[in-house]
Amino acid sequence: RESRLHRQMGARGGAGAGRDEGSFHRGVRRGDPRNADSLLGLGALCLDTGRAGEAETLFRALASVRPGPDCSYHLGLALTALERAEAEAAYRQALVFRPDFPEALCNLGAGLNAQGRLEEAGRIYRRVLTVRPDHAEALSNLALIRQGQGMIDRGVAALCRALAVQPGNPDILHNLALALDRQRRPDEAAAAARRAVAVQPFHAEALSTLGTLLRELDRLPSSILAQRNAIILRPAWAEALNNLGNSLHDQGRLDEAVTAYDRAVASRPDFTNAHWNRALSRLLGGDFSRGWDDYEWRLRQEGNQAPGGPFPQPLWRGEEPVRGTLLVHTEQGFGDTIQFIRYVPAAVARGWRVVVEAPRPLLRLLGSLPVPEGRVTLVAKGEPLPPFDAHCPLLSLPRAFRTEFGTIPAPIPYLKAEPDRVEAWARRLPPRTVGADGPGGLRVGIVWQGNPQAAVDRGRSVPLAEFAPLARIPGLRLVSLQKNHGLEQLDRLPEGMAVTVLGPGFDDGPHAFRDTAAVMMGLDLIVTTDTAVAHLAGALGRPVWLALKAVPDWRWLMGREDCPWYPTMRLFRQTRPGDWRPVVARMAGELFQIMMAKAMRTTDILVETAPGELLDKISILEIKRERIQDPVKRRNVETEHGILTRTADRHIPSTAELRELAAALKAVNTALWEIEDAIRDCERAQDFGPRFIELARAVYRTNDRRAAIKRQINERLGSALFEEKSYAAY
């Protein structure tokens, strides 16, 4: 999505001419139009002042008077400034006169590099370095060649050598920043870009690069400032405008992002990245009608420059009437295929016979689409295609169907698990009720990690340990649906967190998601990050909770908890970028309420009680939560505490006086807890002397204070129920 520019360093040789020198040379030329020194001096002045066309004329005149290396070299500079291909011939002619001319060699290499002739350019730069090993421009440009050839480490080394020669050269610092970024060293890359800007504050490319690096480091306000400063220097610079739009998008400032992309497109109408990025901002903001149009630019981004795509048959854009067979070819990831395959039954309903070209691992799953027999043919990518009359990329179907919120095809479920697999996995899943967990447990599938190598994974995966609050809910079993990446996190779970792993046979065959789909049918809920599993759960119609970063992928829209693509999905969004704790805490709170509701439904005994008794029981449970360490016992305590606390919240007002009485009740019960511990110590030691007697007396004295506080609570609330006590006189 970003646009970045490596700056090739052209070498300038010969002296430029100031204003006085220009007057002098013009005077000389009036007396001697063929004076070689004046032709060279005036030509250099024209180059320095941006008049490359005049410079070319002067240097060509010089060639007829005094041909030589300086003349050919300066002509090459003028032609380079004019972006003329003849510059290469001019530099080569200079080298005929002087084979070891380092500036001519360096500029020839820069021209070859710009044409993509990397091997030739590399040889030229190495020639420069044999003549002058400390030639900074050659070292810097050779570094770019090596980067283009995939030798990033050698490129960084060459740039560091160039910096040793010219420590304050902003172009070298800028190129080093880009090279370090390719090594995934963004902090060091940003530091190099800052140094370039410090040396040359008006270095627009370094400012824009600094902005993109700060975006990678999630320093968005500083990123936006850097891009805006670059644009001040070059107001119509499409790349910087595009990069500004990216940073604004990541802050959720979608309207401003679209404005930046608009300016980039206005500056360069064929700027593919700007159109594509504008599509993402428009779609995320819910502007489907214009978003789908821009979304088509992804095809050009992927190298498919032909207007109709990679096939000679016409591209279907939703026109009527429909005749014959339509090829739908999938693109992008598995999740995209699962999400948009829903349009195939809609295309069949329009009258098409459909051939779906899809990744082989997905064919078995896609075979469950609800379509009439014989109307859809599935073909693995790379296999020969049957005849067809028109084609459409899968993610172009929303545009072909003019999709808006109210017209999303959502006949949920539109994919199905295989019944025999469902039955087989049902026998292998952990039971919902285990030991002391009690009745009414939940089985919750969990996925936490996407592909860490994918750019889209930045900020969307969640460390598994963050989900520990879910594992602490009594009666809830977490079941891992994770495959490939992130499995190592299962070996370092926080204390008290357990996750059931389904074993080595889980989805190990050639068919993707075959077992995952079957397991989902036996789960009560799927909790996942933004991965293909979220799409699978939604397509199967399973309850699914999706954890989303603050500014998510476009399909999840902004600011809503429901998902128009998947009616059984709930969205849980970050409120602060990078902070997953509130997201998981909210999930845990809602799951806890679900568990408590299930527990209440399985309890047959409902008894009215006095408010003092209720608060007394809650205070005892609070003490147990603080002191009991056994995880099973603690889960049971938390279950009971949750039920009673919600009951108290519904029926007992929260006043300062009642809060004070509740605190006094907890203090008394804490004292009773400690008295009982001390009595048991005496029992273990068989010590029944004065200390034991005093502790025994403290029991009934403290219980009397407890009863008095409970009576006060009941009286304040006008309870019809009171605890009464009667003892023999003493």
Secondary structure layout:
Layout: H1 19-31, H2 36-48, H3 52-65, H4 69-81, H5 87-97, H6 102-114, H7 118-131, H8 136-148, H9 152-165, H10 170-182, H11 186-199, H12 204-216, H13 220-233, H14 238-250, H15 254-267, H16 272-284, H17 288-295, H18 298-301, E1 325-329, H19 334-340, H20 343-350, E2 353-358, H21 363-366, E3 376-380, E4 390-393, H22 397-400, H23 419-426, E5 442-447, H24 468-471, E6 476-480, E7 499-500, H25 514-520, E8 525-528, H26 532-540, E9 544-548, E10 569-573, H27 581-601, H28 611-627, H29 631-651, H30 656-685, H31 690-716
Parallel strand pairs: 1-2, 1-4, 2-3, 5-6, 5-8, 6-7, 8-9, 9-10
Helix pairs in contact: 1-2, 2-3, 2-4, 3-4, 4-5, 4-6, 5-6, 6-7, 6-8, 7-8, 8-9, 9-10, 10-11, 10-12, 11-12, 12-13, 12-14, 13-14, 14-15, 14-16, 15-16, 16-17, 19-26, 23-25, 28-29, 28-30, 28-31, 30-31
Detailed description of the structure:
The protein is an alpha/beta fold. Among the domains are: 325-407; 419-599, Rossmann fold (3-Layer(aba) Sandwich), CATH 3.40.50.2000; 611-716, no CATH class. It is 54% helix and 6% strand. The strands form two sheets. The chain has a six-stranded parallel β-sheet, with helices on both faces. A four-stranded parallel β-sheet has the order 3-2-1-4, with helices on one face. Strand 5 (442-447), helix 24 (468-471) and strand 6 form a beta-alpha-beta unit. Helix 14 runs antiparallel to helix 15 (254-267). The chain is elongated, with a radius of gyration of 37 Å.
